[in-house]
Amino acid sequence: DALLLLEDFLMHYLSVENKNSWFPKKDILETIQALFKLNNTYGIPFHIYNVSGQDIIKKKLKIFNAIRDLSLTLPQDLNGTVKKSILKFSEAKSIFELKNLPDKFKSLEVPMNKNKDAPPEFEELWKNIHKDICELIELDADVVYKPYIELFEKLLEYFNKICKHDDVLFLGELNSKARLLFGEEGITIAEIYYRMATRFNHYLIDEFQDTSRLQWKNLEEMVREAISIGGSLFYVGDKKQAIYRFRGGDARLFDEVKNEFSEYAKPKSLTKNWRSHKAIVEFNNKIFSKENLISAIFQMDIEDNVGDKEELIKHIFGAFSDSHEEYIPDKPYGYVSVQRIDEDKKEDRNAKTKEKIIPLIDKLRTRGFSYKDIAMLCRDNDEVELITSWCLEKGISVESEKTLSIQENSLIQELISFLRFLYSPIDDLSFAFFILGDIFTMATGISQKEITDFIFGLRKERTSKNEVNLYRKLRERYPEIWNTYIEDFFKRVGFVSPYELVISIYERYRLMDNFKENQAFFMKFLELIKQQEDEYTGLGDLLSYLDTAQKEELYVSVDETDSVHVLTIHKSKGLEFGVVILPFLRIDVNAETGEIPGSYITPEGNSCGLVRITKEHRKYSKRLKKIYEKAYIEACLNEFNNLYVALTRAKFEMYIFMPKKSASSANKARNLIPEEIKELGEPRDYETKNGPLRPSVTLSPSAYAEYLSLIKDEFEDVPSLKNRGKILQGNVIHFILSFIDNALTQDKRNILDKAISCAKIKYPFFDDFTATEEIIIRLIEDKEMQPFFSVGTDKLYLEKEIVDVRGDTKRVDRLIVKEKEVWVVDYKSSREASEKYIAQIREYIDIVKKLYPRKKVKGFLLYLNETKFEEVKDSND
Q1: 686 has a pLDDT exceeding 90
Q2: For every residue of 420-469, which 3-state class applies, written as one string?
Q3: This prediction's pTM
Q4: Residue 334: pLDDT band by 50, 70, 90 thresholds?
Q5: 495-526 burial string, b = 16+ CB within 10 Å, else e?
Q6: Using CA atoms, how far apart are residues 481 and 484, in angstroms rounded to an integer?
Q7: Which residues pair with 564 in a beta bridge?
Q8: Which residue, 805, 804, 778, is CA-closest to 863?
Q9: pLDDT, tens digit, for every residue of 747-805?
Q10: How far apart are CA 643 and CA 18, in angstroms?
Q11: pLDDT (tens digit, 9 = 90+) per residue, 485-510?
């Protein structure tokens, strides 16, 4: 259904009749995902503006014709440049881009030469065109995301039905779902307490500056009730560290809630800095003082963005009014270094920064700091990756998401390449990557040079008519190596689970012994496979999952080691480090929502509007300019907060490197840190008092059972590969059948098409859908099979989970509940393990009998490749 909705969306909005309207045709899925995030962040529906692409086209035609008519009556004393722009525009296309409009139409006044007045008729035409352009601009801003929102609402309706059916709630939805429960149309306070099975009188909220309005609304009534009966609200936070605006965080709540409960409020400010030494505290006092903030803002090049800098200063200083801190007497030292990187080109700036940072780390080491005392804070993941690569290149031990993702670990990459080869033996590239890697060469004793010579030596043997796969050549050249390290896996893959297969690879290649320092990565990889085995049962499924897995799922948590920390400023919040290095300190003000490029959120009653605002939009529309200015001020405040977080993480020393530019603009951070500040304090030796490092846990490799040896040797290469294909086909058929409910009432062709479309996404490696479709059609149209697929008014459950007395979960392919009977139906590809299948379905029968004690329970095995079924008798009959 979702795919059909998407198809309808594309057909309608990208049709010929709309081809001339501005409409982004890429990243539809990303935009829908972003709308889902925004919907859950704000917890209110999107406003759909009453405008269409056709309205835009009509308005453009009207404006074009009016400007063309105007061009025929240009007064002699009209500004010459304006004359040329109007004449040039009137000779262009009638459906134009906004940026091509003559710029002077942004003004209501006619641009005449000095001391000359415009003819009244011409002035009237000019003002009408100006008015129409302003209307067009607002229509254009409102229409862009309308089709996305309409599609999103349809998909959301379908999405919610699936979630309700499967009893699923996503973490990102918690606040918006709670609002539906606790809102004015929801339940009462008494009911909330009843449903929570407890009564809370005291509330403690940490990091309150990052609380969203939606989160606060969900708590407000309960907090109010608690306070009214003698309870309390205690919230802690720092407005200067509000850096989660993109998640809906609203630091304004900090003062609003205090004022709301002013009768009970007892504010307390903490003015002592217990983390940093004197030089760092004094540096930040200087940077975030009122005088310096005002000076910095007036120096910043922001005239085109915000007209009233006084408004910006008011917001900035409102957050930093209490920024002055005192250092504690037993921390009287500290050191701050500020260096400006003046190179114009980004490559040159990066090279210069690298040239300074690497020797700095070495120097810090010689002065007694460990790697683990040092943190480098970056603005984004691209910077994290760049800095990490610099450190690794110079042999500096480093810990970052880049180095702690299993997919970034070279040994895990080798393992995945080996699995890709086992799944598809014709994949020469994956096989070459594996045998050239450390795992294979260390286990076999063959040098990488010998393997390299072997691979490149094959070029001479290969011809266009006689291509031979790499693995066959290796088997011929190194038969003993092949038999010892590859043969068993090659023959048996597909007959054991990916989890068991990987365990066997670990054992055969002695990974835990040979690469002890990578134990955490091996264990995480194994854990990941185990966690996903219910959903990704086959090797092909697993490989597809690894290609699309979220970064968070691949991150390895390890014991503390002596490594430089490289992380984003956002992830450093709440942390402290002995030495902080800021390699690219900069201010980047981006007023957009952060989810959809060019988009801005604006309140529209009880909903939120989503508009697109460009420079052209801001020239003509006061409404859009005001939306932009408000967003810009919030984004600017967010940037100052980011800097504050970054500049307050260090205990002993801080090294700041400020590039000349940020992207193509001047780096505004240079306005904030006065040029005369180059050093504060002086370097010295400190007692870090961190104690010894915890040693990495040494895991002795378990004597894993050699699962592959349990498989009989009757399977040879070719049959093995063929059976592997049959197993995959069986999985695909199984998946498609999960879409087929009651074939008696369903549009079989439509359902089958949708199911196959979904299967192609889930099984990208499978390519024989034509034959599979024939099997499905034969299966559901066969007369003997009709009772299983055309169930009339009987209740039917697909992929139904049932639980036995031990709490173990089983899944029945089809559970058909009739008036006097219940049928338990399970699909199997063939009869090869019929005894095992019979035992399995008898187990299902025993469980279902307890669920339906008054009905007769029958079991059936449906053999997909034969289009036959077998009734399984109850073991007690």
Answers
A1: no
A2: HHHHCCCCHHHHHHHHCCHHHHHHHCCCHHHHHHHHHHHHHCCECCECCC
A3: 0.66
A4: very high
A5: bbbbbbbbbbbbbbbebbeebeebbbbbbbbe
A6: 5
A7: 398
A8: 778
A9: 777 788 888 887 877 776 677 788 888 888 888 888 888 888 888 888 888 888 888 77
A10: 45
A11: 999 898 888 788 888 899 999 999 99
Place of tokens 């294979």: 440
Q: How many CA atoms lie within 13 A of 548 on its CB side?
A: 11
Average pLDDT over residues 224-235: 89
- Mean pLDDT of the residues in the chain: 83
412 and 686 Cβ atoms separated by less than 8 Å: no
Name the one residue in this structure whose structure tokens are 């043997």: 461
Q: What is the DSSP letter of 405?
A: B
Instruction: Output the 3-class SS for 264-312.
Output: CCCCCCCCEECCCCHHHHHHHHHHCCHHHHHHHHHHCCCCCCCCCHHHH
Q: Tell me the one-letter amino acid at 464.
A: S
| Beta-bridge partners for 658 | 340
CB 231 within 8 A of CB 201: yes
Residue 709: pLDDT over 50: no
Question: CA 501, CA 539: separation in Å to the nearest integer?
Answer: 9
Give residues with Cβ within 8 angstroms of 830, minimum separation 6: 726, 863, 865, 866
Cα 717–Cα 722–Cα 727 angle in degrees, nearest 5: 125
Alpha-carbon distance values, 5 to 156, 745, 763, 861 (Å): 11, 21, 22, 36
Higher pLDDT, 7 or 23: 7
- Dihedrals φ, ψ of 795, to 5°? -80, 135
- 3-class SS of residue 5: helix
Taking Cα atoms as reference points, which of 206, 198, 249 lies closest to residue 226?
198
In three-state secondary structure terms, 555 is: strand
Q: 477-487 burial string, b = 16+ CB within 10 Å, else e?
A: ebeebbeebbe
CA 831 – CA 113 distance, rounded (Å): 94
Task: Determine the Cα–Cα distance for residues 424 and 411; give it in Å rounded to an integer.
Answer: 20
Nearest alpha-carbon partner for 564 in 687, 391, 355, 380: 391
Give exposure, 93-117, as e/b (b: 16+ Cβ within 10 Å). eeeeebeebbebbbeeebbbeeeee
Listed residue (189, 265, 259) closest to 234, CA to CA? 265
Are β-strands 661-662 and 821-828 bridged in parallel, bridged antiparallel, or unpaired? unpaired
3-state secondary structure of 723: helix
- Quote the percentage of the chain above a pLDDT of 90: 36
Q: What letter does residue 97 receive in the DSSP assignment?
A: -
Question: In the chain, what is the straight-line distance between the N-terminal and C-terminal CA atoms, in Å?
Answer: 44
Q: Residue 548: how many CB atoms within 10 A of its CB?
A: 7
Q: What percent of the chain has pLDDT over 70?
A: 85
- Per the CB < 8 A criterion, the answer to whether 706 and 509 are in contact is no
Query: What is the spatial distance between Cα 152 and Cα 218, in angstroms, rounded to a whole number?
Result: 25
169-173, 293-297, 403-407, 856-860 — which is least confidently predicted?
Answer: 403-407
Q: How far apart are CA 384 and CA 598, in angstroms?
A: 26
Q: At what angle do helices 189-196 and 213-228 cross, to 10 degrees?
A: 100
Residues 6+ apart with CB under 8 A from 482: 474, 475
Helix, strand or coil, per DSSP, at residue 202: strand
Q: Residue 672 carries which side chain, given as an amino acid letter? A: L
**What is the phi-psi region of residue 115: left when phi exceeds 0, alpha when psi lies from -120 to 50, beta otherwise?**
left
pLDDT for 700: 34
Using CA atoms, how far apart are residues 231 and 258, in angstroms rounded to an integer?
16
Question: Which stretch of DSSP H or E encloses residue 61?
Answer: helix 53-71
| Stretch 59-87: mean pLDDT | 93
- Whether the Cβ atoms of residue 864 and residue 852 lie closer than 8 Å to each other: no
Give the C-alpha separation, 866 to 869, whole Å: 8
Return the DSSP state at 78.
B
